[in-house]
Amino acid sequence: MRIYRSFLFAPGNRPRFVEKVAHCGADAVILDLEDAVPIAEKEATRQAVREALTAISNCPVYVRINPLVAATSFSQAIGEADLKAIVCGDLAGVILPKTERASEAQQAESILNDLEGERGLQPGGIDLIPIIETALGVHQAFDIASAGTRIKRLAFGAGDFTRDIGVRWSRREVESQYARSALVIASRAAGIEASLDSVWIDIRDPRGLTRSARLAKQLGFQGKMAIHPTQVEPINNAFSPTPDELEHAKRVVAAFETAEAAGEALIQLDGQMIDYPIVEAAQRILDMADALEANRS
């Protein structure tokens, strides 16, 4: 199991940024063909991104394409053209923006199936991460999460979401907590991994970023997207077990194993009652620590 705490964006039309992102400590990088790229540069940027995919080898590389379904047929066409340009053996996954319906994810999966077959790639080897960015997307989150075998996790986009519901994106992010929780619940119900949280747009506010990341972790997210290299370390720290959490988890598991061997399934440790759900949570912390160590090796 690979743990994804941080996904770092880089605009696909900025070669200098693309070269740097793979060395910033992020668990994965996202080369952007959507919001960060002017329409006039889309075609040239596809080629640049395709070349970058073969050049980056030290971390998984995802690409955010343009929407497959949008207000105009032109928007749909460039989304499909994005996929045709980027699908190759070096592509870890596709970020599908502004996903509102399961049919959109299924359309992307169908195109990926065809392209993998045509190009001799491993069937189903390319992940698909839908970003939920509207009220309709939140409402349909479970169906989207269940829409295909490529979907291992969802992502949340706070900027477009707050615009869609007509509110200001505040630093405390109270206006999007319901939507965030809805993604967490939908992901769990669909049996996929925990979601990725939205970016934090103020790169000069590391305290705000850390607060946002800790809240996302508390809500049940696995990681968070980043827009600047300086955001990677705070995000990784926020979504990694602390030394105290690891030590406590080890004590919980060890104490319960001893008790279970003696025929007991409910014990007390440091004033807390420990039963199977508590032990399972502690074991998840230890498993995550092992997975992070494997990521580094």
Automatic annotation (TrEMBL):
Matching InterPro entries: Aldolase/citrate-lyase_domain (IPR005000), Citrate_lyase_beta/mcl1/mcl2 (IPR011206), Pyrv/PenolPyrv_kinase-like_dom (IPR015813), Pyrv_kinase-like_dom_sf (IPR040442)
Binding annotation for substrate: 64, 133
Cofactor(s) this protein cannot do without: Mg(2+)
Residue ranges of every copy of the HpcH/HpaI aldolase/citrate lyase domain listed in the record: 5-229
UniProt GO MF annotations: catalytic activity; magnesium ion binding
PANTHER family (UniProt xref): HPCH_HPAI ALDOLASE_CITRATE LYASE DOMAIN-CONTAINING PROTEIN (PTHR32308:SF0), LYASE BETA SUBUNIT, PUTATIVE (AFU_ORTHOLOGUE AFUA_4G13030)-RELATED (PTHR32308)
Protein name: HpcH/HpaI aldolase/citrate lyase domain-containing protein
Protein source organism: Candidatus Entotheonella gemina
